[in-house]
Amino acid sequence: QVQLVESGGGLVQAGGSLRLSCAASGSIFRGNTMAWYRQAPGNQRKLVALITIGGSTTYADSVKGRFTISRDKAKNMVYLEMNSLKPEDTAVYHCNTPVDGTSLVRWQWGQGTQVTVSS
Hints:
Blueprint lengths: L3 E4 L2 E4 L4 E7 L9 E6 L6 E6 L5 E3 L7 E6 L4 E6 L8 E6 L16 E6 L1
């Protein structure tokens, strides 16, 4: 069973930066699109950034120009570089593989990593 482990979150002031990492127990990254999601208290989990097998990226409008998703196939890792952070970026961040054409994901959710941005 695939296990996803997110790390790199923390408390940061508005305008600061963080780099999130996602590791998996199996070599799932090489053959799958990967995405970062976030869930703020009281809200639904939402897709933030996506990277395809070929390296194409897509971002939610709210993070365009501030966040960068990348992958290291050799290390089986996916990253989310977050700059110019805002208080509204506060959430638990998760990685996963989206199922094409749906809001579903392929793998069981990991614990996520908490990002808190203070004003």
